[in-house]
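Hello again, I could really use a second opinion on something today. I've been staring at a protein lately and its backbone has me curious. You're getting the sequence in one-letter code plus the fold written as tokens. I'd be grateful if you could look everything over and explain what you see. No rush at all, and the record is pasted right below:
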Amino acid sequence: MGFKVAVAADAAGVDYKEAIKADLEADPRVDEVIDVGIAPGETTPYPRKGIAGARVIAEGDADRGIFVCGTGMGMAISANKVPGIRACTAHDSFSVERLVMSNNAQVLCLGERVIGLELARRLAHEFLDYTFDPTSHSKANVDLIVEYEKETGADDNSVTSC
């Protein structure tokens, strides 16, 4: 069974999102691409799309997400507001590997104004190469994050829709 991948962007990231979406649709590892927007020519603030994409993952309708804005940082901050989501900006191969292998993150955020298109496409491809090992020493760190969410009530999925 392949991945279900949510993609999202704002106006500063829509061109890369469209290219990555096309790559994902052609990738045999991907069963479904869920595009939460935006479409070229639209303008929607990145928090709306980052949260919407993260909710798709938190609700179990997607396994991973690739979100693009100007720097990737706004999308990461927004996505991380959704309980249970771990998202981060990464602009190199090692960081993408560690995003999954050390942090069990579900969302890769990229910056269209920061890296070239071919690198973004390569990193998106590599993101699907990795699987978190629940027997690794990193699991203890991920467990601490999950426990904090539980202690603070952040895991109750009470995030309101944008």
Observations:
- The chain is about 40% helix and 15% strand.
